[in-house]
């Protein structure tokens, strides 16, 4: 195909789309009005909307003028259970729900790219599938899309996430891990409750729990190289509800974040050992729920290379600042080849980050995101054709 660089204008239409979506966020797996709005926008631009067995989300497709492989472009669509305090004049009109992770920017960016690609089918050697995915914030949406068969036949999938730590006009991409693998853990301690005045007649769980929580921090400090980021965070504890009773049960939960598979495996081994052996030392029982539900997000090395080579023609390419947040886009790597980038969305000193009620992403983000989606679709299609021809 002819080598072309897309430079997509930030039109009044795209700004209006972004602001409408920001003002009308919906919770995960309940994005009914959002899905209907996206579907109307696609149909208004003559883009084929495909059947979708899921209750929310939208899937569409653009067939190029020339035969070739199929790639997918994905944007997430759900909001967060946050009361917005951004001060924007198009802030959320839905109380208690906010696009505090900037998914409105992702949707508007993908629509901008899709409108451009639809108008330039002569440049497309293959098929571009468009996936507006629900429930990323729950970490369940990507798997739902896969299980519904909506990425069957897709040879590569392209995604983005806005990042307020970069200024608009900036993209960060490469072969390094970008977002963390995620574990959700829960521990329940089983003891023999007793009267608080007779502690020797029971086996209280609270002292054991305190010891465990402190000891778990040694997983990071004494077991992993300081050159590998690893986080173990206990975020909730519970035990007892009466002032003069030693409870029979207590527990805690939290998360582990990692970038290297071997670190995740080591953390699991050490976590179980600390909990089980501490429980034994205190004469109580313990059960562990360890849900390693999301892998680290890493782009396919062979595909991201030509993408990064092209980025300086339409945006500033910046080094990856890896995030300890998770992204269920990583789930697609189990069934196809992922390509991902951070898109600068703010960049001002002290700006709020994701999931803050004061998060603000600038409209200009949409232009850069749209350019990345469109150019990367063409770049990846070309790379797949070349590798297939060999």
From TrEMBL:
Residues 184-281 form the Peptidase M20 dimerisation domain. GO terms for molecular function: metal ion binding; N-acetyldiaminopimelate deacetylase activity. SUPFAM superfamilies: Bacterial exopeptidase dimerisation domain, Zn-dependent exopeptidases. Mn(2+) binds at residues 101, 103, 137, 161, 355. InterPro entries: Amidohydrolase, Bact_exopeptidase_dim_dom, Peptidase_M20, Peptidase_M20_dimer. The keyword Hydrolase applies. Its cofactor is Mn(2+). The Mn(2+) ion enhances activity. GO terms for biological process: diaminopimelate biosynthetic process. The keyword Metal-binding applies. Keywords: Hydrolase, Manganese, Metal-binding. This is N-acyl-L-amino acid amidohydrolase. It comes from Bifidobacterium pseudolongum subsp. globosum.
